[in-house]
User: What shape does this take?
Amino acid sequence: MNLEQASHQLEALGNPTRLQIYRTLVRAGPAGLAVGGLQERIGIAASTLSHHLKRLVDTGLVTQERHATTLICRAHYPAMNALIGYLSDECCADVGCVEPEVVAS
Assistant: This one.
């Protein structure tokens, strides 16, 4: 993953509707959701959903697969994991990680 790709994915997820769509697809698991089912869960117009899905597909965060007349959308877990890794891989690289102190209750 590079800086440009990460920034495009984060920008796509920076929209509240797209973030809600993406989280819904992540929750759905590997089976994904049909566009109609996703529309029912999110409660937005089909044209609006299509617009937001296109952005998520274009950034590689979502995949789509046609089954006859049904379009199945899935979170692309490798892309999600790569983005999370990009954000966390160099945590404290310049100073070394220090375990946080545990506060007794």
Summary: DSSP finds five helices and three strands in the chain. The helical segments are 3-13, 16-28, 35-42, 46-58, 77-88. The beta strands are 33-34, 62-67, 70-75. The chain has a mean pLDDT of 92.
